[in-house]
Design goal:
- This protein has 259 residues and is of the alpha/beta class.
- The chain is built from nine helices and 14 strands.
- The strands form three sheets. The chain has a six-stranded mixed beta sheet with strand order 1-2-3-4-5-6, covered by helices on one side. A six-stranded mixed beta sheet has the order 7-8-9-10-13-14. A two-stranded antiparallel sheet has the order 11-12.
- The longest helix has 15 residues.
- The structure holds zinc ion (ZN) (2 copies).
- The site of one zinc ion has 6 residues, from helix 2.
- One zinc ion (ZN) binds next to helix 2.
Length: 259
């Protein structure tokens, strides 16, 4: 079994998961990186394509890949994504390229965003979360409300500690700069930032992350922590500390304008 982030565009990853013979990819915004990866591994057959949401940088390569490989496509029940595909939503299970996944509805970044979770891929849980959860951050709220996004992130944060978190973008360093502004006293965050800087200096991915780490360093999973609320209040004195949705909304707004 191998889990490989294939770089696409300037900062996307198309996740490739395979068992040596059967393969699936997640959010192929471009076909070529996947076709190149398959050509380099002639034993692999692409059998599945998973789509988390409708944005073009997650779906642009789907039609070409389906034509080239006849792979089955699964995607969100409620979004405009290229047909044909099997539409799935919360609680549904699917088997792609021999791997079992459960579908989670995680609206916020888009209205119908879904995530794919497997409790056991070679002994460890695995999450493909698209643009909902990033390492050290979360997606922008293009279509959903802060309440929806907070609920979606709470659902992801409840997954096991060892869950490998496979996000679609390499945004980690810029997210961690913001996280440090929110929580300057978080030692785990400082340590993680140093490790990620070393990886990026060698052009290596910072992903996958894991859920225990994200709960320790990601301000958007920590918006109920006193240290996060304190950091936010220093920036935005109108924050209602007792209102989790207000805190989350203001945290996300701060990040939108953070340089
Ligand atoms: Zn997106
Ligand atoms: Zn994206």
């Amino acid at each position: 079994m191998e889990l490989i982030p294939l770089p696409a565009f300037s900062d996307n990853y198309i996740w490739l998961l395979h068992d040596g013979q059967r393969a699936l990819v997640v959010d192929p915004g471009q076909a070529q990186p996947v076709l190149d990866a398959l050509a380099a591994r002639p034993a692999l057959r692409l059998e599945g394509i998973l789509i988390t949401h409708h944005h073009a940088d997650h779906t642009g390569g789907v039609a070409q890949l389906r034509e080239a490989t006849q792979a089955q496509v699964w995607g969100p029940a409620l979004e405009r994504v290229p047909e044909p595909l099997l539409r799935v939503q919360q609680g549904q299970r699917l088997q792609a390229a021999g791997f079992d996944f459960e579908v989670l509805d995680v609206p916020g970044h888009t209205a119908g965003h879904i995530a794919f979770y497997s409790a056991d891929v070679l002994g460890q849980p695995l999450l493909f979360c698209g643009d909902t959860l990033f390492s050290g951050g979360c997606g922008r709220l293009f279509e959903g409300t802060p309440a929806q996004m907070l609920h979606s992130l709470d659902q992801l944060a409840a997954l096991p500690d060892t869950t490998r978190v496979c996000c679609t973008h390499e945004y980690t360093l810029s997210n961690l700069r913001f996280a440090r502004a929110v929580e300057p006293g978080n030692a785990a965050l400082l340590d993680y930032q140093a490790r990620c800087e070393a990886l990026r200096a060698q052009s290596l991915p910072t992903l996958p992350s894991n859920m225990a780490l994200e709960r320790a360093i990601n301000p958007f999973l920590r918006s109920r922590e006193a240290s996060v609320i304190q950091g936010l209040q220093a920036h935005d004195a109108d924050t209602h500390a007792g209102d989790a949705i207000d805190v989350f909304a203001r945290l996300r707004e701060w990040k939108n304008t953070f340089q």
